[in-house]
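Here is one chain, start to finish.
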Amino acid sequence: MAADLQARGVAGLLLGPTASLRYFTGLDWHASERLTGALIHADGRVEYVCPGFERGKVAGLTSAPNAVAADILTWEEDESPYALVAGRLAAGGALAVDDQAAAFIWLGLSRQLGSERMVDGGPMIVALRSRKSQAEIALLTRAKAITLEVQRRARHWLKAGVLTSEVKAFIDAEHRALGGEGGSWFCLVSFGDDTCLPHGGEGDRALQVDDVVLIDTGTLVDGYHSDITRTYVFGTPTDEVRQVWEHEKQAQALAFEAARIGVACESLDAAARDYLTGVGYGPDYRLPGLPHRTGHGIGLDIHEAPNLVRGDATPLQPGMCFSNEPMLVIPGRFGVRLEDHFYMTDQGPVWFTQPSHSLDDPFGEGVDA
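Its structure:
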């Protein structure tokens, strides 16, 4: 990061209480109305910034083996943390700011420094965080393996009359039993026509025989996310559901096949979307069809840049990790989303989890539930 700051002529980068703070320093801190973060200087020095009454806690967390040890700058309740940060910069130096930090942090700093000295730190952060190390890929692999097994268990556990809230509780317990950090914080369970809503319905619906089931959930392993979706039928699929499911599976496969080192992220979205348009969906984001991007980056945040979406020309590079989920929505009827993740190697893409085997046998067990 220091080399990037020097190359851009920026004096420092301020990290807010975001996943980037954890990524660069090891400090995992909750967001609040009080600024706690880290100032990375162009010469490589790191300074933590926090309220005076939090100094002891920050000192304890940053003394851990996996954290960056550095000086801690404190501000009292009647003082400005933004003036404190501004005072640590070289005279006239520009400050890059974590693009995921709250707007009030940017506004407070701009009042101290002037907008002309403020720089979007997002491009520098994304360039480093988007390329995962082997250790990060190992953590992501474990998280996704846990969630895939939880998805399999949930399918076999379903019964007529069960409520979506009960399924969520089951998934949470199973995630924890397998060593994840729980799934209740992120668990979308949809039955019937609620599946045509990409983020699900609002009610606590009961499962009925022959309902389409869509479950989108994940967990955390040492801060790294899983995010897997499976769609199947609790009962007998109609011919229409079967056909849409097969179209979804093919769109996902084509997006994966389009992934090559150096190609633009948007080309994967185009591969899925062009196929779907060719078989009668859309075009573009129109329904019936694919209403959202084909995929997103993933790591310490569940949704990270870059994205597999039109307009994102970021070239694929080794270590980048993405979801692949070109959902199909049939308005008022049902939706099908199959979501797995892959990471890029010099030789091309590698699945973290194998895609759904078939509508009748989604987990490749050789039996029908």
